[in-house]
Amino acid sequence: MMHLHLYIGNKRYSSWSMRPWLLLKVKDIPFVEHLSPFDHTTNHQHFWQFSPTKKVPVIKYTSDESEPDADAFVVWDSLAIMEFVADLYPNTSCWPADLMLRAQARAMANEMHSGFSDLRNECPMNMCRQASQIELSAAAQNDIKRVEQLWSDCLAQHGGPFLFGQFGIVDAMFAPVVNRLEVYDVPVNDSTQRYMHSIKSLPAWQAWDEAAQEEPWVCEEVEI
Q1: pLDDT tens, 30-85?
Q2: In whole angstroms, what is the distance from residue 113 CA to residue 82 CA?
Q3: Which position among 33, 52, 191, 205 has the lowest Cβ density within 10 Å, counted as fewest Cβ atoms?
Q4: Does the pTM exceed 0.85?
Q5: Domains recognised in the chain with CATH numbers
Q6: What span, in angstroms and rounded, lies between the C-alpha atoms of 10 and 12?
């Protein structure tokens, strides 16, 4: 039997770690979690121990449930990890079954992966931040408008509660935005609020949030 080992950073801050973790939990796919806290004083040098890019997340595929050895198969990057999981577990509906809808979902996931840089930079994910507004640039506000339009179009087309009906990779990709909109107290429309509620109602989201609240590490470098 093969085992998945997911290496992640702090649940309080690591939006990229959250994405595959949520997918695996929602789809009830077994994995072993390895949490390695950020260390800004050393520029996260310890990440080299398990990550070929010194970044999280990383997933390792091995026949041993214990700590993977040097021969373990390694996949890095959140979206690549979730694509790998979708191929390993084709019956879990990580992507829509319809060819056209799958292409649409992939386009959205890739847009989240490579875009919205102003929103991400100005509003870093922080599960423990007390909600309050900050002044956002016009570029970040445009990112938010684009996110809301994507969400409202999908929800209207597919009926919710998630972007393509049931939770999938595209929802996992956008999940950290839910936290950003909430903790920076961004005014949003009713459709966005309903989608945010759907994401936050997931037991997997709540488990991540509870663990984040209990973490002892605070990184002042990313606190706003």
Answers
A1: 999 999 999 888 888 999 989 999 999 999 998 877 777 777 899 999 999 999 99
A2: 12
A3: 52
A4: yes
A5: 3-92 (3.40.30.10), 99-207 (1.20.1050.10)
A6: 5
